[in-house]
């Protein structure tokens, strides 16, 4: 029998597969395709204190092996989430991760405080590349990353995950800063800042000019960063970036991730996260591996 459970900062996930924030909304649409109780955890779309319209369209563009997005944290706000979305999600036997994306330290503190222990974990997003205030501005300076983590952690009643940006010189420096601030876990990577230009109109394809690149194109970068962070920082990691198959998930676990998030693939195939979960179980069983935890960090690096 396979023990598929993993431990993420003291929270037991029944399996290592979670959803990446922003690619799964609050689960309603995808729950028409499969039972969300199949997942280790659901990480919901970014939550801000007040409702947010997001950026001007166009804000999604296809690229070779990925997509660019400049959504700009569109969501219904904290109150809407707690009143309408959370009760629906709570019907499923899965852990809930609330991604909080306030534009100031104070806003993030207020959201964390009001969420209390109504969710299982909080993911503090210091890595959105598509907003002028907050987001990646918090996550590209180690001192700021430490400070915001410290302040939000003080308000958190559940374990705090800090979501890191790949758009930095040294992601391990930011990871260390988050750990010093009291983070219980890290998630990485958010999207890589990119741009696409329509050569006929000479206009950027996204109205925001730039956007975050996700999907299979970024997987090797993500695996490398997870490996670098997991082996040096000493915190559990949720690995993400271009995961489409059970073997992709295994790659992140081997690199040192304790859980693996499926993101852009959800937009291509609604059952992607379930397919990845089943593929990972097959990968483990075919090799006689009895527990998912056994391969975490088990890469035989040179
Ligand atoms: C967005 O809503 O712009 C994407 C969120 C993120 O990259 O953190």
Walk me through this protein's architecture.
With 302 residues, the protein is an alpha/beta fold. It has a single domain, classed as Aldolase class I (TIM Barrel, Alpha-Beta Barrel), CATH 3.20.20. 31% of the residues lie in helices and 20% in strands. The chain contains nine helices and 16 strands. It has helices at 78-89, 105-115, 136-139, 142-155, 171-180, 219-233, 246-255, 265-268, 272-286; strands spanning 6-8, 11-13, 17-19, 41-43, 60-63, 66-69, 95-100, 121-125, 160-163, 185-188, 192-195, 197-198, 203-204, 210-214, 237-240, 259-262. The strands form four sheets. It has an eight-stranded parallel sheet, covered by helices on one side. Helix 4 (142-155) runs parallel beside helix 5, helix 5 crosses helix 6 (219-233) and helix 7 crosses helix 9. It is globular, with a radius of gyration of 18 Å. The protein binds succinic acid. Succinic acid (SIN) binds at residues 22, 46, 69, 71-73, 125, 127-128, 130, 190-191, 212.
